[in-house]
Amino acid sequence: MLKKLAPVPSPPLTHAAVTCPFCGLLCDDLTITARGTQLTVMANGCPKASAAFKAADLPGPPLVNGQPASLEAALDAAARILQRSQQPLFAGLGTDVAGLRALLALAEPCHAIVDHLHGAAMARQVRVLQSRGLIQTTLAEVRNRADLVVLLGVDINTDFQRFAEICLTPAESLVPARLAARRVFQVGPAASKPRHAGVRVERVPCAAVDLRQTLSALRAELRGRPHRVGGRTRTGVTQLAHAIRAAQYTVIVWAPGQLAALDGDLIIASAGELIADINRERRAAGLVLGGNDGGQTALAVCTWITGYPLRLSFAGDTLDFDPLRYQTARLLGQGAVDALLWLSTFSAQPAPATPIPRIVIGNAASTLMAPNSVFLPAGTPGLDHPGQLLRTDAVVALPLRELRPTATPSAAALLLQLAQRLR
Ligand code: SF4
Fold first, then answer.
1. Which of 35, 68, 377, 391 has the most CB atoms in a 10 Å sphere around its CB?
2. Cβ distance 289 to 255 under 8 Å?
């Protein structure tokens, strides 16, 4: 009798020049191997990317009230929730360009309110942009042309982990003299001092709550006016003012999501005023680090399609943009919405707990097994299907690839099927 042969394991597939979708930097030089559905970063990933690719399990079956269901039955149940709702909220919005387009196409007939997972950070930045304007630049400009970079309260050890490698100490630059002369200052607490090897950081030590005061002191110092900041912060402010006077191109970097909720917008506004001051005699610009979980994509696509950024309501006769009123937590807390559609295909951020009916379109980490809910499994853009995302500096859309075989549909495909049921 013939002995049954064990199946020969298929060799891992190696993908080069992969775009990583797990933070707003969208590094596009990763090497990833795929053994079946298991993905491993082999080169050019940061610790955050390595953990995210490793943990990216495929989601299980669709669920209705926590019980496995066919995709058709789950889509029908989701459509019923939206049909019964008088005021739905579409939130999370962790998806790619096609997913956002499909979500907005559904938001209009459903008269939904839309908000992103990082809506608070976006609101901080957008408020300053709208009220005062900001001179902003790109990752490429920092990498190639800045000879002074000021990290303002931003922690690149925990997020945007390759920023130092890509922008502060790149292997090469279009303007080598600027790279050779580049100085890096960090304004903020000691814990956020960059730990990347090769970055020599000069510090302006101050507590996170004192960032605005420190910026005011720096503006005063540059104008030769008195200020009240003392101690080591004063020494650092004086040194940074000298460095700004000596630099040809200063870039100030901040991450709206890492600034305090209370005065984050005021810190950004102060940074904008400092940049305007410097530009009277030399060149300066700001660089915003953000856009995680498809945040920059959501902001851009919403603006392309509606003319408004997020947070936005389709409930009335006209579109209503209101970054204070249309906050997810506030709307849920006040009982102002009666159904939640939560879209999350990148992160492990679960849908907010709420007694109202919930539809979750998401990855394995977003699986929702609860009464009064529908879970629709979706692929992660850049892992399970192709797509595009906008980078944090909003000037580049990066292509995403399919890295592993899966039948899990994209969020865009699910939203399209949902929209068809509501016609
Ligand atoms: S820095 Fe961001 S985009 Fe780059 S590899 Fe890390 S998580 Fe991915």
1. 377
2. yes
Q: List the structure tokens of 224.
A: 């030769």
pTM score, whole prediction: 0.93
Contacting residues for 284 by C-beta, under 8 A, at least 6 apart: 135, 244, 249, 250, 251, 252, 274, 275, 278
Unique residue bearing structure tokens 């579409």: 90
Shared-domain flag, residues 217 and 179: yes
Residues 183-235: tens digit of each pLDDT: 999 999 988 888 887 889 999 999 999 999 999 999 999 999 989 899 999 99
Please say whether the beta carbons of 58 and 70 come within 8 A. no
The answer on 188 and 323 residing in a single domain is no
CATH number of the domain to which 278 belongs: 3.40.228.10
Does some domain include residue 151? yes
Residue span of the structural domain in which 399 resides: 56-118+293-421
Indicate if 83 and 170 belong to the same structural domain.
no
- The answer to whether residues 127 and 247 belong to one domain is yes
Asked if residue 402 is part of any domain, the answer here is: yes
Q: How far is the CA of 232 from the centre of ligand 1 (A)?
A: 33
Instruction: Give the Å distance between the CA of 100 and the centre of ligand 1.
Output: 22
Looking at the structure, tell me whether residues 271 and 148 fall in a common domain.
Answer: yes
Q: Whose C-alpha lies nearest to ligand 1, atom 4?
A: 27
What are the two backbone dihedrals, phi and then psi, of residue 64, each rounded to the nearest 5 degrees?
-125, 120
Q: What is the pLDDT of residues 248-268, one digit of tens each?
A: 999 999 999 999 888 899 999
Last residue of a domain, one of 256, 290, 324: 290
C-alpha distances out from residue 232 to 193, 204, 207, 214, 236, Å: 15, 7, 12, 11, 6
Name the residue with the closest Cα to ligand 1, atom 6. 46
Atom of ligand 1 nearest to the CA of 46: 6
Q: Which of 139, 162, 396 to mutate to test the pocket of ligand 1 (most atoms within 8 A of CB)?
A: 162
CA 338 → CA 75, 83, 184, 286, 384, distances in Å?
Answer: 18, 11, 49, 40, 32
Q: Helices (H) and strands (E) in the chain — how many of each?
A: 13, 19
335 and 254 part of one domain: no
* pLDDT tens for each residue of 115-158: 999 999 999 999 899 888 999 999 999 999 999 999 999 999 99
Measured CA to CA, the distance from residue 173 to residue 280 in angstroms comes to 27
Strands 30-35 and 38-43, bridge-based pairing = antiparallel
Of 258, 275, 290, which marks where a domain is finished?
290
